[in-house]
Amino acid sequence: MSPLSRRAFTAAALTTLLAGCGGPGATSGKTTTEGRASSTPSSTEAATPQGRSVPVRLRIPEIGVDTPVMRLGLAPDGTVQVPPVTAHDQAGWYEHSPTPGQTGPSVLLGHVTVGSYGAGVFRRLGELRRGDRVEARLENGGTAAFAVTEVRTVDKADFPAGAVYGNVDRPELRLITCGGPRTGAGYRDNVIVFAASISAGER
Fold first, then answer.
1. Any idea what the CATH number is for the domain that residue 135 is in?
2. Residues 154, 103, 162: CA angle, nearest 5 degrees
3. How far is CA 155 from CA 30, 32, 181, 187, 195, in A?
4. Residue 27: which pLDDT band, with cuts at 50, 70 and 90?
5. Is residue 139 part of a domain?
6. This prediction's pTM
């Protein structure tokens, strides 16, 4: 990561993500650990790190996500940009984070609702469970595969910047959206999915 990217990544760790989350629409409740059975991979060994290649598509079969991925930078106020509120909602990759498959936490964001357009691309993010598969298709034609390790719903005032942005010694993924009860124009909480790399053929 370049010095400029590292500074931007560190600065983003001090900000709250997805403050607005797309405006009025469906709500998202607290994450639970009950329900659907886990599909935890038989091996916990991380896949070999890949070279840097920008993600162009994200697939999460368990919750029906198959979305293009746009690049996101920093807004003028120093917060992480969020995808625009449009009818054709899609996820965004924070370009000052590692790309999926590189060592470190790659950060992708999406809306839970998109104003009058209804539900957002990450509306079901809180339904994911440990072991669920996430795939990022890369610009170089490759795929970075991950398995969910944890799902958290946290108050935005207590956003765990260290856990989301902190250094890790393997390729990992962070998927972030809003959740919890509505408060004015936004949501009180963030839903954060943590995932670790697996080999492309691993189940």
1. 2.40.260.10
2. 30
3. 10, 15, 10, 9, 20
4. very low
5. yes
6. 0.81
Please give the residue range of the domain that contains residue 107: 3-198
Q: E strand or H helix at 22, and its extent?
A: none
For residue 18, being part of any structural domain is answered with yes
**Domain-located, residue 203:** no
Q: For the purposes of burial, counting CB atoms within 10 Å of the CB of 162, is it exposed (0-12), middle (13-18) or buried (19 or more)?
A: exposed
Give the integer Cα–Cα distance in Å for 110 and 182. Answer: 17
Alpha helices in the chain (DSSP H): 3-12, 161-165
| C-alpha closest to that of 171 among 60, 51, 71 | 51
Q: With respect to residue 42, please indicate whether it lies within any of the assigned structural domains.
A: yes
Whether 78 and 58 have beta carbons less than 8 Å apart is answered as: no
Q: How many domains, in total, are found in the chain?
A: 1
Q: What is the pLDDT of residue 33?
A: 31
- Most distant CA pair in the chain, distance: 44
Q: Tokens 């760790």 correspond to what residue?
A: 13
pLDDT of residue 3: 46
Q: Which of 58, 79, 76, 75 is nearest to 67 (CA)?
A: 58
Closest CA to 125 of 145, 109, 139: 109
Which DSSP helix (H) or strand (E) runs through 113? Answer: none
Could you tell me the two tokens for 193?
Answer: 């999915």
